[in-house]
């Protein structure tokens, strides 16, 4: 029997007899990320980065100079997963800051969730110049969407392989680890208590998204269903949807089509600003 089959069998039995205990155990598993070291192809970008520590202890990597672009990875991710995108942004004249999310990399903490990730974005933005764009992958994308509802200001927003609502992710995890119905409900309740926010509110259906954006997803993503991108795009009037036939959950970060679409979006939000500056200059 594989380890995962053993876990599911254990949770199925204990979850019926002691649902609170099983829910608490899976809560700790769900909120406690493992550290994933950078791949070899990420190391050159890491060597080129400037390591910075923000006021409340968050760690980040910085490259280049120019209009600020803030990046946030997903669960058990890292800043250097954005290597191809970072290189392109720096060449295009942007200053890029990529966070280590809470409890990831060198940032403090032992547990992480989407609300903590969203607050990390707010903390970082408070110490950076006005943001040209925020780009988030997976849970980082969900956190970026949530952060805009909590006060984050950015001229453009990009989500890559992001879920539209967190309740779906919680249910998928609970099903994956074999929690029975009563334990699943208590698991979700415990996550809500830890995050300090009802999971029903962490859902793009309730958001007001008024900035230009780009929603990227691969059809063969095995972690976050591609239908999530359709849900995000449907309620975001200023968004463009980029569907990729393949790439899974992480490969879209290095896809040339994604890099090109991101740069085009950032160019499009820069052009109105230039037009306004020209109008002011002519008027004066």
Automatic annotation (TrEMBL):
GO MF: hydrolase activity
Entries under Pfam families matching the protein: Abhydrolase_6 (PF12697)
Keywords: Hydrolase
Chain ranges of the AB hydrolase-1 domain: 69-260
InterPro entries on file: AB_hydrolase_1, AB_hydrolase_fold, Carboxylesterase_BioH
Domain of life per record: Bacteria
PANTHER family: HYDROLASE ALPHA/BETA FOLD FAMILY (PTHR43194), PEROXISOMAL MEMBRANE PROTEIN LPX1 (PTHR43194:SF2)
Protein name: Alpha/beta fold hydrolase
Organism: Aquipseudomonas ullengensis
Source taxonomy: Bacteria, Pseudomonadati, Pseudomonadota, Gammaproteobacteria, Pseudomonadales
């Amino acid at each position: 029997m594989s380890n995962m089959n053993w876990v599911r069998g254990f949770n199925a039995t204990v979850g019926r007899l002691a649902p609170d205990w099983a829910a608490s155990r899976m809560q700790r598993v769900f909120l406690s990320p493992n550290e994933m070291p950078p791949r070899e192809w990420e190391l050159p970008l890491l060597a080129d980065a400037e390591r910075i520590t923000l006021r409340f202890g968050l760690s980040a990597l910085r490259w280049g100079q120019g209009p600020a672009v803030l990046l946030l990875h997903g669960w058990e991710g890292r800043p250097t997963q954005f290597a191809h995108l970072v290189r392109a942004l720096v060449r295009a004249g942007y200053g890029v800051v990529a966070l280590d999310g809470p409890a990831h990399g060198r940032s403090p903490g032992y547990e992480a969730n989407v609300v903590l990730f969203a607050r990390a974005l707010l903390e970082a933005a408070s110490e950076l110049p006005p943001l040209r764009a925020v780009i988030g992958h997976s849970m980082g994308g969900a956190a970026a969407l949530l952060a805009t509802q909590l006060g984050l200001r950015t001229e453009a927003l990009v989500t890559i392989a992001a879920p539209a609502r967190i309740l779906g992710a919680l249910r998928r995890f609970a099903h994956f680890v074999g929690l029975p119905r009563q334990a699943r409900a208590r698991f979700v309740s415990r996550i809500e208590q830890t995050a300090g926010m009802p999971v029903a509110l962490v859902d793009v259906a309730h958001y007001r998204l008024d900035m230009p954006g780009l929603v990227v997803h691969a059809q063969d993503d095995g972690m976050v269903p591609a239908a999530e991108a359709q849900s995000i795009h449907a309620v975001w009037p200023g968004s463009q949807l980029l569907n990729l036939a393949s790439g899974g959950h992480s490969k879209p970060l290095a896809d040339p089509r994604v890099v090109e679409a991101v740069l085009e979006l950032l160019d499009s939000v820069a052009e109105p600003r230039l037009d306004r500056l020209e109008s002011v200059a002519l008027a004066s």
